[in-house]
Amino acid sequence: MDKAVLDRFEDQHVAVLLVGSQEKEFLIHRELLPSEAKEGSLLVVEREDNEIKSIQLDQSATQAQTKRIQGKMAQLREQKGMRKKNGD
Predict the structure, then answer these.
(1) What sign has the CA pseudo-torsion 43, 46, 47, 51?
(2) What is the DSSP letter of 31?
(3) Percent with pLDDT over 90 in the chain
(4) Long-range pairs for 42-46: beta carbons < 8 A, 24 or more residues apart
(5) Is 58 helix (H, G, I), strand (E, B) or coil?
(6) Where are the beta strands (DSSP E) in 12-62?
(7) How many CB atoms lie within 10 A of CB 17?
(8) For residue 6, how many C-alpha atoms fall within 13 Å in the half-sphere facing its CB?
């Protein structure tokens, strides 16, 4: 089993997955994804002979990543607001 991220959609029918620590790119039919998957979702994939056999959404990891990113964005907005107040 490998970890993957749903990087993007290309046209209406193709999804681009970045799989493993080396983020190897795989193109798959969008219909093979779990229905809840969206760009940025974290997935668990099973590969066999360089072909993806199964895909599962890792909801807990996706939620944790979303929360972490939202926190970082809030920090950046706060820092930007402080610079405006200080005239930087």
Answers:
(1) negative
(2) G
(3) 68
(4) 42/3, 42/4, 42/5, 43/3, 43/4, 43/5, 43/6, 43/17, 44/1, 44/2, 44/3, 44/4, 45/1, 45/2, 45/3, 45/4, 45/17, 45/19, 46/1, 46/2
(5) coil
(6) 14-19, 24-29, 42-48, 51-57
(7) 25
(8) 27
CA atoms of 88 and 86, how far apart (whole Å): 6
For residue 23, the SS3 value is: coil
Can you tell me the distance from the alpha carbon of 9 to that of 15, in angstroms, rounded to the nearest whole number?
4
Q: Phi and psi of 49, rounded to 5°? A: 50, 45
Tokens for 70, please give them: 């939202």
Give me the residue label for tokens 């959404």.
Answer: 57
pLDDT digits (tens, 9 = 90+) for 28-87: 999 999 999 999 999 999 998 888 999 999 999 999 988 999 999 998 988 877 666 666
